[in-house]
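Lab meeting prep.
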Amino acid sequence: MQSRHRVFAEDLLLAQLQGEDHFDNVPDSLVLIIFNKLADARSLGRCAAVSKRFNSLVPLVDDACLRIDRVISSDAADDALGVSAGGAQRQRTGAGAVFSGLLKTVLSAVLKPFGHCDAGARSGSHGKHAPHHSPAQVLKNFSSIRNLRMELPVSDVGTDDGVLLKWKAVFGSTLQTCVILGGTKLDHAAAPHTPPPPTTAPDHDASQQGDGSIPESFYTNGGLKLRVVWTISSLIAAATRHYLLREIVKEHPTLQRVDLTDAHGQGTLCMERAQLKEFTDKPLAAAAAANRTQVPACNMKLRYAPMLELSDGTRIQGATLVVIKPVGETGGIGTGRKDLDDFVADAFDGPFREAVAMLSKRRTYLLEMNGF
């Protein structure tokens, strides 16, 4: 007995031999639904070459995903940065000294080059590659994109194995808000019926966290300096991605949402309708010596826990949450405190969402950073 799939295939082949094409009976609206489910920009480009009908329908898709396969490194600028710590809760003069000399001594050594993307579509067979094109060139034939997701092949900020660093930023014409979650060591949950592996001591004494305050050693053993480097590195990564989008947003006025992430899920830059409109209406302020948007002066709220143990058994040592807002920012996400709190709470998924919730209950430390 023949399978239903084989009978259908034979019927379809017979219809084609008789000059009939049942696919022509499929309405354009259904074909567009299929193309929107496909989403991948390069696959859609190949579909456009199949027939005149497909060629006319592919530019009308609402959703597109572009995976960038090539990154050309460019040196990050040696910006003149000024960072200072403040807030009544800190009450430590030593921290100010750490901030004042931090970037002069470590920034050029720690910050690795940040890539700007010149990714291209791959086509052909037998391993032959077409010339590389910019993301804007790959997307130029799409006229109706509403939701665009772009994915870089690698993370922007290099970290050692076992270090946790995740960020999410919202930009309009410049930074509107950014949340960063970090940890000096991430121990994933042990398998069932397996005793958890021994862990090294956390970078600070857990006994000192009873009132949620940061221990004195945090300022003297490099803990604060490391968090500042994480923050600056993440902001440079976000600003570089934002700069990449300038031509794409200009050429696609139908866009309502853009997410620019990376294959490792380290960071995400997102822009929704209001931010995209601001991006097109206001001039972009580029950094003087780098392919990135200038980062404005910012206020930062830092929360810290020497150790977090999550409900699934995951442990984060030196857990840190940094929430960043430009000085004097009155628009965009986070205009109200509840809006900002909701954004921070929803920034990450899975166990990291729980980690943010736990850190949000801890004492807040206020920091300030000059634009760069």
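Slide two material, second protein:
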Amino acid sequence: MASRSLMVALLLAAVAATCARAQLHEKFYSESCPSVEDVVRREMVRALSLAPSLAGPLLRMHFHDCFVRGCDGSVLLDSANKTAEKDAQPNQTLRGFGFVERVKAAVEKACPDTVSCADVLALIARDAVWLSKGPFWEVPLGRRDGSVSISNETDALPPPTANFTVLTQLFAAVNLDAKDLVVLSAGHTIGTSHCFSFSDRLYNFTGMENPSDIDPTLEPQYMMRLKSKCASLNDNTTLVEMDPGSFKTFDTDYFKLVSKRRGLFHSDGALLTDPFTRAYVQRHASGAFKDEFFADFAASMIKMGNANPLTGSQGEIRKKCNVVNH
């Protein structure tokens, strides 16, 4: 009897999850807020015309939201005692929170109490890619906002220091596979990173903390170039382009870099340690299959955006993204 009850419970949970995903669709606001995408895009065009380097951080923010509690806007919440997701070490380098609030305010003005912060963030991420000359996709909408944000739960985020095994486990936890891993990693084609996210590869690979303690998998000339920018293991301020030369343009150059062992992070280099992801990197390193990669990236972004959304009567529609409604 107990096993039968368990089977029924699991079946119901699976049905509920399927229904939740099914409630997300591209025309969710077609009647309640038909202008939402125009409002978001207007703000995005204005922001990126002034600060094109903001595209990478905004894409990353959506990624960080979806990997913790699903795509529920929890990464945007403030905490008086600094225990929210945004206070955790992996999110200390996120930027663009003020801009998200500005977009949300514009959406609220057009359609009060209608569009969730989670959906606003999903649209911002799509436009960040598209306005950086990347692919366009229709974003399934209908997410609602969560009211819980816990810093310790950011352990679910794939760290830049992770090996392939850890990466696949963390991606699988949000229903993403090895193809999604290699495709979404290419989001590193736009944006910058602080030295401390990878400087152990330059000075402390085995824990010796000296200039000769380097990661042997990193291409030597690129290693020296990075050392000229990141002077020591303690450099906490310098920013480095993740895709040198085209870090404001969404393209396939990321794969070219990784194939030459010039991926910035451990996690980039890890893509060469698995036959499937290595083959994907090498295929797209040529740049000859841009349309194919763009289609793959759009599909993986949609799949990631389906990670455990709150829908229907779950959660709320926050008036401001950094605080729950009162």
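Talking points for slide two:
The two ends are 44 Å apart (CA to CA).
The beta strands are 192-194, 239-241.
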